[in-house]
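Justification of resources, computational component.

The compute hours requested in this renewal are based largely on the per-chain cost of generating structure records like the one below. Each record pairs the submitted sequence with a full structure-token output. That output is archived, and it is also reused by downstream analysis tasks.
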Amino acid sequence: MKQRLIISEEVHDALNSRKAVVALESTIISHGMPYPQNIETALEVEHLVRSQQAIPATIAVIDGSIHIGLSQKQLEFVGSPTNSQAFHKLSTADLPFALSKNFCGSTTVAATLFCAERAGIKVMATGGLGGAHRDCQDTMDISADLGEMRRMSQTVVCSGVKSILDIGKTLELLETFQIPIIGYQSYEMPAFYSSSSGHKLNWRVESAQEIAELMLAKEEIGVKGSTIIAAAPPLEYALDFQKMENIIEQGLAAAKSQGISGKAVTPFLLAAVEKLTSGASLRVNKALIKNNATIAAQIATCFHAQI
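The structure output for this chain reads:
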């Protein structure tokens, strides 16, 4: 029988030694950034995680097996433009079919959460989460990321939700699902490209050590579900919220006029926004994922130092 879950030797040894490991999703490599910036950023992110004494575990499906921890060759394979059409964007529900057909695919936040939990990894980093779409009251389009965060017990470092989403509705759903969202050094909910969104958060922390202590308390009393740590993009890269809202509305209108929907909307919008901002959106996207990965690695290192 084919091995469906392959943990790299480096990640396996780290988990067995109770060392810090950070899960990283691969959709940002295959669908979130243009080539070659996608591969360059993925390698930089892994380097930053290691610089904080943690081990990176980028997750992807390759030839019908879930790989947790990728080699540089595998990262380049995931991000190669020649493979983009054959590389599927996989949520948790897609995994069994993809594995049975020996497909290749990148993992969304939801699928990364599921795979990380299976491997015993407790912290993950991403750019933006999925959530409630702006017209979800009509379409019922709500990301599977929310449901998976409700089921899995991960600490997820992000810069809020993806820019195409409705932040207010997503926050209401997170409250309903009992998924806490905690601001990192801020009470303000970031808006992916922007530091502020006009939505306030109830809780904030100042350091990775505080988050590690929160994780330990959560485990001690047996609370299930994930915790979201919302970190604003670095100030020197952050873009004006209202300006970005106008640009995103233009991108969404273009997607609608061209009949683009579902999983194809995010990569289409990212490309449109990059063009409309003359590349500034790509620069902030790269900056925030590197910042989030660094914070996640610090959290994982602090947590493993106290268990």
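Residues 126 and 158 are 5 Å apart (CA to CA). The radius of gyration is 18 Å.
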